């Protein structure tokens, strides 16, 4: 679903800062979208869109931290770079504990911001790749028959074919056939690979 | 007088008779001899001269013809009584009586009567001398003495004569009155023992000795007290002179004394009150003056000279010269104007000006004066000049201290607001940095650039630089060391400038600052920076209160309302409100409920408002929280 390129979303209530960031990021070839408040961003938020959020930590009404919390509640993976003012260190710490990738203090060197944004975009890409792989595994698990699913669970639990045959009250030969079908459907090249995929599929977030 | 005629009845005369007759005729006194029935037997020459009768006219007649009535007709009875009883009423004694001349006139005589000691019927010899002259002299003397006594008694001084031994020989009525002694009781007493206090007796005695020794100066002066009969004391000023007899020998002393008790007390109390006045003036640095409008008389109290650094023995300066030499040149016109108006309108003058002392030092004085009339009915100016240099300096120091304190509080407030203001300056700086770096990259890039972006970046760089500059300018004008200055300002402008300073702080604390103003509002006469300082304190307190209460309603409402003749500005929050305990200490210097507060904000706000004629108050905000408000009086005529 790479229908849109990774975008830098800028949320800042100060128009001058907002516009200047737009121009700066545009000058380095990054797609930018700007929002003058947290709510304005949240209104059009699409979790599927790749990118990085550049967020002013202090804003009237809904603050940057409030927005971070709202996104966390929606299981957003969008990396956040906070822009903080002088003396906002305690807030920055709070933001980092809540999962922000980084923060930068005003006034900053452009390259420092761009570096942080790029790191955020890379992380976003990685996250999205990992999520896509997990979705793929879950999809394949979903395509297994109930019997194959039972065999998968028992195999990944570390049980030998003979034990599985006994558990399922089938022949050892039948177990071997199901197991081969599972390995094939899951596109696994070893038992260790299969175990890793099952663990990945079971991860939340 | 008439020629003595030879007696017709003297046929035979013995030698003895002749001798007797010669004696009788030579005698100065009148000699009349009568027999026991009062018939005149002998009447000598002197008798003829005295009575105007010739002997022949009276011989053989009754002696009563020589006496006025009723003595004449009673003489026979006197004589009969004597002959019968032998009692002697006149004989051998002599007495004064009145006699009668031939022409009927009466005259005083001294009569001595003798009974002729011969056998047979008794006969009597009367010797008479005219005492008219003696009477006259005696009367004159008596009159003289009475007059002298009257003089003594009339004198309003004590007149006292004392003999050599110190006994009183004379005291006049005034003396008796003052001493409480009757003259007769005092006469003959020892003066010093009776009337002079023991402690002062010795010097008085020595002086008395000098006077009676005739070696004291005439009219020698002394003062000593006397004791009255009632035990009281009086101070008497004496003049002493020796008292001499007709030979010039000093027989005592004569003193005149004046009771100066009251005069001395009055003098003493006058001297004392003058001393007190002089002392009080010196202590207070207050001089007083009288200047006659006719320029006839001028009086300066000693402190006047002292204030001017002049020797106090000098005569007061004429007004023009005083102004010329001792009034600061910049104050002369003001003083002269006030003086003229006082003289013209008969009112009062109340003026502060500067004096230049003789040594060139400057003193601040406060002068009060008014037109009055002196006891001679002349119009004059009376007034005071008070040296207020020290109190003026003290006031100036207090004012400066207050200004420094206000300034300090302003800086401290700014310190507390630093985060918000740093943010306010960081915003444009961040924007400028971003724009310039974007420009740099655009220009370095080979790709085609949007000219609008370049235009935007450039115009925004200057706009944001101005924005930062404006914040700094506001900040500077707020914190810079400045003298208090009153100006006329529209409330709208005052609030706009205030918001530039407090809004960043509100934003930083996620607080909505709402302003509501009545329309229209009159201009305010105030020091805008000081009023803004008050408002910053109130808004910051409101922000802190909101934070403290974790209030859900994060709004601070700033209202500017018209109320009676005032403009009332209030700041309402939804914090915890002001407890009674805090309210009791509100405005105490250094009392604070904040961990980082100076405790000066409200105290200084109060003093600023007091200087503006306004007052700080507080009340609960409906629905919770505190509303703090103050009024500023609108100067009438400035209303719009």
Query: Any idea of the CATH topology of the largest domain in chain A?
Result: Rossmann fold
Residue stretches of chain A low in confidence (pLDDT < 50, at least 5 long) are: none
Count the E strands of chain A: 5
Q: What summary fits the major beta sheet of chain B? A: 5 strands, antiparallel
Relative strand content of chain B: 15-25%
Please give the CATH class of the largest domain in chain B: Alpha Beta
Structural class of chain B: alpha+beta
CATH superfamily of the largest domain in chain A: Response regulator
Q: Can you tell me the overall shape of chain B?
A: rod-shaped
N-to-C CA distance of chain A: 19 Å
Tally of structural domains of chain A? 2
The main sheet of chain A orders its strands as: 2-1-3-4-5
The assigned structural class of chain A equals alpha/beta
Number of helices of chain B: 20
Q: What's the number of structural domains of chain B?
A: 4
Rg of chain A over CA atoms, rounded to whole Å, is 23 Å
So how many helices of chain A? Answer: 9
CATH superfamily of the largest domain in chain B: Histidine kinase-like ATPase, C-terminal domain
Q: What is the number of strand segments of chain B?
A: 22
The low-pLDDT segments of chain B are: none
């Amino acid at each position: 679903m790479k229908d849109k390129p990774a975008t830098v979303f800028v949320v800042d209530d100060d128009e001058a800062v907002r516009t200047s960031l737009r121009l700066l990021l545009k000058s380095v070839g990054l797609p930018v979208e700007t929002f003058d408040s947290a709510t304005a961003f949240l209104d059009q938020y699409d979790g599927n869109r790749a990118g990085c959020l550049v967020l002013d930590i202090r804003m009237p009404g809904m603050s940057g931290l409030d927005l971070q919390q709202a996104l966390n509640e929606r299981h957003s993976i969008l990396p956040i770079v906070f822009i903080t003012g002088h003396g906002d260190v305690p807030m920055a710490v709070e933001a980092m504990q809540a999962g922000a990738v980084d923060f930068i203090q005003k006034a900053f060197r452009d390259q420092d911001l761009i570096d942080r944004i790029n790191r955020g975009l890379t992380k976003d890409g990685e996250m999205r790749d990992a999520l896509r792989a997990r979705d793929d595994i879950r999809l394949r698990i979903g395509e297994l028959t109930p019997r194959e699913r039972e065999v998968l669970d028992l195999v990944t639990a570390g049980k030998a074919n003979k034990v599985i045959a006994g558990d399922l009250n089938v022949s050892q030969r039948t177990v071997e056939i199901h197991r081969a079908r599972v390995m094939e459907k899951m596109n696994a090249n070893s038992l260790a690979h299969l175990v890793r995929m099952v663990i990945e599929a079971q991860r939340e977030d | 007088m008439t020629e003595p005629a030879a007696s017709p009845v003297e046929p035979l005369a013995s030698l003895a008779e002749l001798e007797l007759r010669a004696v009788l005729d030579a005698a100065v006194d009148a000699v009349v001899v009568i027999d026991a029935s009062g018939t005149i037997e002998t009447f000598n020459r002197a008798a003829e001269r005295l009575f105007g009768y010739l002997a022949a006219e009276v011989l053989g007649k009754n002696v009563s013809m020589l006496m006025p009535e009723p003595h004449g007709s009673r003489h026979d009875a006197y004589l009969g009584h004597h002959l019968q009883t032998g009692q002697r009423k006149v004989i051998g004694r002599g007495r004064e009586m009145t006699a009668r001349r031939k022409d009927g006139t009466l005259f005083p005589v001294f009569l001595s009567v003798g009974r002729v000691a011969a056998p047979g019927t008794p006969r009597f010899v009367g010797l008479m001398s005219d005492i008219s002259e003696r009477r006259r002299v005696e009367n004159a003397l008596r009159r003289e003495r009475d007059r002298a006594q009257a003089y003594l008694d009339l004198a309003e001084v004590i007149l006292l004569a004392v003999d050599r031994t110190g006994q009183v020989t004379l005291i006049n009525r005034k003396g008796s009155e003052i001493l409480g002694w009757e003259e007769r009781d005092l006469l003959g007493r020892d003066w010093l023992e009776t009337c002079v206090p023991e402690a002062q007796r010795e010097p008085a005695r020595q002086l008395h000795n000098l006077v009676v020794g005739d070696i004291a100066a005439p009219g020698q002066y002394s003062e000593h007290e006397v004791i009255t009969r009632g035990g009281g004391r009086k101070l008497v000023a004496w003049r002493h002179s020796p008292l001499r007899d007709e030979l010039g020998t000093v027989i005592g002393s004569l003193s005149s004394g004046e009771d100066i008790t009251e005069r001395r007390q009055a003098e003493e109390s006058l001297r004392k009150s003058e001393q007190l006045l002089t002392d009080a003036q010196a202590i207070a640095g207050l001089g007083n003056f009288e200047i006659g409008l006719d320029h006839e008389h001028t009086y300066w109290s000693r402190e006047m000279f002292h204030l001017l650094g002049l020797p106090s023995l000098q005569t007061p300066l004429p007004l023009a010269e005083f102004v010329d030499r001792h009034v600061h040149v910049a104050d002369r016109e003001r003083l002269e104007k006030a003086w003229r108006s006082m003289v013209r309108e008969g009112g009062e003058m109340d003026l502060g000006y500067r004096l230049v002392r003789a040594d060139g030092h400057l003193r601040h004085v406060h002068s009060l004066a008014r037109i009055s009339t002196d006891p001679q009915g002349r119009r004059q100016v009376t007034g005071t000049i008070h040296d207020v240099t020290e109190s003026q300096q003290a006031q100036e120091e207090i004012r400066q201290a207050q200004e420094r304190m206000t300034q300090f509080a302003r800086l401290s407030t700014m310190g507390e607001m630093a985060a918000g203001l740093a943010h306010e300056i960081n915003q444009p700086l961040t924007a400028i940095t971003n724009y310039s770096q974007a420009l740099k990259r655009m220009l370095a890039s080979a790709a085609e650039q949007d000219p609008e972006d370049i235009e935007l970046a450039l115009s925004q760089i200057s706009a944001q630089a101005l924005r930062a500059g404006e914040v700094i300018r506001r900040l500077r004008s707020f914190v810079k060391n400045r003298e208090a200055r009153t100006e006329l300002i529209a409330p709208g402008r005052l609030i706009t400038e205030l918001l530039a300073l407090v809004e960043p702080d509100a934003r930083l604390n996620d607080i909505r600052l709402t302003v509501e103003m009545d329309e229209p509002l009159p201009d305010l006469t105030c020091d805008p920076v000081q009023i803004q300082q008050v408002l910053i304190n109130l808004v910051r307190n409101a922000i802190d209160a909101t934070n403290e209460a974790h209030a859900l309603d994060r709004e601070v409402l700033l209202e500017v309302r018209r109320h009676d003749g005032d403009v009332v500005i209030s700041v309402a929050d939804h914090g915890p409100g002001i407890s009674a305990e805090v309210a009791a200490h509100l405005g105490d210097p250094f009392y604070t409920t904040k961990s980082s507060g100076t405790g000066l904000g409200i105290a200084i706000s109060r003093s600023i408002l007091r200087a503006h004629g306004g007052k700080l108050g507080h009340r609960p905000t409906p629905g919770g929280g505190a509303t703090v408000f103050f009024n500023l009086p609108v100067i009438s005529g400035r209303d719009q």
